[in-house]
Write a structure and sequence with these properties.
The complex is a heterodimer of chains A (about 250) and B (about 210).
Chain A: H1 3-24, H2 37-52, E1 55-61, H3 70-86, E2 95-98, H4 101-117, E3 129-131, H5 136-149, E4 152-160, H6 164-174, E5 178-182, H7 186-195, E6 198-200, H8 208-211, H9 216-248
Parallel strand pairs in A: 1-2, 1-4, 2-3, 4-5, 5-6
Chain B: H1 2-26, H2 30-67, H3 73-92, H4 98-133, H5 137-153, H6 163-203
Helix pairs in contact in B: 1-2, 2-3, 5-6
The chains are: A alpha/beta (about 250), B mainly alpha (about 210).
């Protein structure tokens, strides 16, 4: 095993230990996170959509399941669980779109399982989780039809996007619906910041599960993330100081 | 009880496969490396099959729209017709034959280029909207930086050299290479941690996107 491999394993081990530790301590030591208004607004928008009999649309982006870009879409699937539960009383259950076949199947599975859990299996339709287009731009081109025909009032973007993120958010803005969007790509984040009503910047898209009360593990992992981040910042600063003094010596 | 057992089996399977693939990144034992490669090859095959399932799902959605003559059914009909023609041409001729390339060059390429043009206009409009809707320091800084980078990148009318052009170019380089690159690295650090946490939640079966 190489030194880099060993370091990677140690960091992963620490991460897992922190997640499990924070999960165990969650009852005695509840988590308090900084306020992110976008998530508060999302909760209110979902409530309004349920009351008005309108639909929530979750977009899982155009990334594939087997690539590193799957992470924000997996976070989106966790949010989908929460949204599917919240909208299970609505006449119009949530609709999910993806730009990848496997992601669309995962969305269908998530919907089916969640509806089974809340005792509303009859709400499940295989076409509620759908592949919208096999390329990024064909996916974006399909969005206006979904937003208009499905009577969508909440448009949640959580997945991997490139420059089509700007179009995906803009179609929502043009349809005058509530738009919240986050992704892992920095340039796409800049587009979302400009276009979307409620952009999620940095790792906020990965914190959505913790903020929307998807489960205790989401809060525990967010706390673990913060601890590891502070550790990394300290290490970076130490590295800067050491290399500066080495240069002076 | 049966559902519970099944879900435990899927979770164990996902955890086991995920663990081997993850360990393959850090440990160089040939057994783990071979197993990781095998699982990755399987995943590529599965993803290709999933694309086929996804396409069937896409056709099913639009078939329903056409058969129920729902709002916008005509677009669904056009989509199904295009899908069928493209599929037949690509299957029976081959994707690199002139007929298939004709479809790509005549329809898909111009349509995607048009969408890019729409994006440019949308961003311009969104820039103005951002200033009016979210009038705070961050938004003004964002727009100001974008304008400075644009000014420093594009050619100045009537001048290609000179102190002002050089100053703008240097300022743009300083903005993008120092401040923007530093900020982007900070964001990427957070994204990497978030992605790791998300992956670990799936690996620990806390999140089960496979529906179990």
């Amino acid at each position: 095993m190489t030194a880099a491999g060993l370091e990677g394993l140690i960091v992963l081990g620490v991460f897992i230990a922190l997640m499990v530790g924070f999960l165990a301590a969650s009852q005695r030591w509840p988590a308090h996170f900084r306020r992110i208004p976008a998530f508060e607004e999302l909760n209110r928008a979902i409530e309004r959509a349920v009351e008005a009999g309108e639909r929530v649309h979750v977009s899982l982006g155009t990334g594939s399941v087997i690539g590193p870009e799957s992470a924000p879409a997996l976070a989106g699937l966790a949010v989908l669980t929460r949204i599917a539960r919240a909208t299970s009383m609505s006449d119009r259950p949530v609709v999910v779109t993806a730009g990848d076949g496997a992601m669309a199947i995962l969305a269908q599975d998530t919907l089916r399982t969640t509806y089974q859990e809340v005792g509303a299996s009859e709400l499940y339709e295989p076409t509620s989780g759908r592949l919208l287009g096999a390329t990024p731009l064909s996916y974006a081109a399909g969005l206006p039809a979904v937003l208009a025909n499905e009577q969508v009032s909440v448009h949640v973007l959580s997945g991997a996007y490139g420059f089509e993120a700007g179009l995906a958010a803009d179609f929502g803005e043009r349809a005058r619906v509530f738009v919240i969007g986050g992704t892992d790509d920095v340039q796409a984040q800049a587009l979302l910041y400009t276009v979307a009503q409620h952009p999620l910047i940095g790792e906020e898209v990965f914190a959505s599960g913790a903020y929307l009360d998807v489960g205790a593990m989401h809060k525990a992992s967010l706390r673990a993330q913060d601890v590891v981040r502070f550790g990394l910042i300290v290490l970076i600063l130490l590295g800067v100081i050491v290399s500066t003094f080495e240069g002076l010596a | 009880m049966r559902v519970l057992r099944l879900s435990a089996i899927w979770a164990a399977l996902a955890m086991g496969v995920g663990l081997f693939v993850l360990l393959g990144y850090f440990i160089e034992f040939s057994f783990i490396q071979d197993l990781r490669l095998l699982f990755l090859r399987w995943s590529v095959l599965l993803a290709a099959t999933a694309l086929l399932v996804g396409l069937i799902n896409l056709v099913a959605v639009h078939w329903r729209k056409v058969s129920l003559t729902e709002e916008g059914w005509i677009y669904s009909a056009v989509l199904m017709l295009s899908f069928t023609v493209t599929l037949i041409l690509a299957l029976f001729l081959r994707p690199d034959r002139p007929a298939a390339l004709f479809i790509f060059k005549t329809f898909q390429l111009p349509l995607e280029a048009s969408l890019m043009a729409v994006l440019a206009i949308s961003l311009l409009v969104a820039g103005f909207r951002l200033v009016s809707r979210r009038r705070n320091l961050l938004s003004l800084l964002f727009i100001g930086t974008a304008l400075m980078v644009l000014l420093g990148t594009g050619p100045m009318p009537g001048a290609t050299e000179g102190p002002i052009v050089n100053l703008l170019g240097n300022f743009r380089a300083w903005l993008s290479q120092v401040w923007a690159a530093g900020g982007a690295r900070g964001i990427l650090l957070g994204v990497a941690l978030g992605a790791t946490a998300t992956g670990l939640r799936v690996l620990l079966a806390a999140d089960r996107p496979y529906g179990a």
